[in-house]
Amino acid sequence: MTTAPATAAPPISATGKHTAVIATLLVAAFVMILNETIMGVALPRLMRSLDINAATGQWLTTAFLLTMAVVIPTTGFLLQRLSTRAVFLGAMTLFCAGTLLAGVSPGFWLLLTARVVQASGTAIMLPLLMTTILTLVPLEHRGRVMGNVSIVISVAPAIGPTLSGLILHYLSWRFMFLLVLPVALAALAYGALRLANVGEVGTKSLDVTSVLLSVPAFGGLVFGLSRIGESSGGQLVVPVAALVLSVICLGLFGWRQITLQARGNPLLDLRVFGYPMFRVGTALLVITMMGLFSVVVLLPLYLQNIHGLGSLATGLLLLPGGLLMGLLAPGVGRLFDRYGPRGLTTLGATLVTVALWRFSAATPQTPIWLLLAIHVLLSLGLACLFTPGFTTALNPLPPSLYSHGSATLTTLQQVAGAAGTALLVTVFTAHALRLSAQGAPQAAAQAAGLQTAFLLAAGIASIGIVLALFLRSPREGEQGAPSER
């Protein structure tokens, strides 16, 4: 059973049913994104337990990212072709099955398979959540509701390492999955009983050629970027070849989508880029994701390699910033609804730039309390960026492009995370190796490499300040106009 068309959906405040739909999707997405980020801290333990080396263990993360990159571009089609209930139940069933399989896996290969199954469900959930909000929530209230989406996107990755560190400190690695499973099953059961369909089910057919092109296009891009930062010398051949193949397939994929637009049947509708605010908001979010990943990747390296903290202490130090983002997100959404995006995003981009610059000046003698304060400052900046960025990018789109805009934005986030990680790790590693070759102590070389990587991250973040100045809310009657100025 479907509801009225998306354009006729009542305001979110008009019905508790719609609030329940969004709340259910929020809980499910939070659990899934949290699961995505808990593996990094666990790799050393998994290597010992499963008797695998670092290169093999890294595939538990790489395979997850690859699956996300391949599945997400298809969600624009899935969300228009299938009902809300069908998409939700399919995504949650995949995630629960993968989580259970991971928790009982006796060896590496079954655990790797479980991670792929988990990622297949995770890839669908976030576009489903954002599309549902765009369909149900009127323009003037979206900032408040999108603030809750920011909790999922920013807080879950921030507390993932903390949760992982706590579990590994006291329990087996299997409990990273087994403790998540009851929450996921509860969300699945509630959704099966109560989740209502949103919007109308379409009749478009799936373009198999586009799907086949999207696999090397997006999968190759994420694989190449994620591997290039860990490779050197002759090892660079594989990731560089993957990137070259990806660029070729991306070009063919784009050409195919433009061709299919005339028939009204693209896998991923690229007309979303015809809306200036979507372009600017997406570019700002790409910069923001690089800033977030610079901290997720570089700061734990600094704390553990330079300051000698353990995984649990590192996770606990990152926790206040993650909690701050969660506490501020709804308030930032209300401020966005009242004042628009420009002031919030300009402040946020400035704070992120200053915080990353301060991290670039950190030394082995920098006190822990100061590092904590800088991280909290950076988290404040990220909180001011996520909600306005998402809402401003998606607000101008007409209902027919909601699912495609959500899928495009989520895909580019994955690519930005992989690109930011690859770039920063490469800079850190290259600078540290060069100084070590010149006779510098290992700790000093690593500290200098991290300083250089953080300085580059600050430079990238400063671009966000310029982009933030161009953001604005759509004026009355302007929504859905690709020629907005």
What does this structure look like?
The structure is a single chain. 76% of the residues lie in helices and 0% in strands. The protein has 485 residues and is mainly α. The longest helix has 36 residues. It is globular, with a radius of gyration of 22 Å. The protein starts with 15 loop residues before the first helix and ends in a 17-residue tail after the last helix. The N terminus is likely disordered.
- CA-to-CA gap between the ends? 39 Å
Q: Percent range for helical residues?
A: over 70%
Low-confidence sequence ranges: 1-15
Sheet bearing the most strands, described?
A: none
Strand content: under 5%
User: Mean of residue pLDDT?
Assistant: 81
The coarse silhouette is: globular
* Structural class computed from helices and strand pairing: mainly alpha
Strands, count:
0
What is the element string, with H for helices and E for strands?
HHHHHHHHHHHHHHHHHH
Structure annotation, total helices: 18
Specify Rg, calculated over alpha carbons.
22 Å
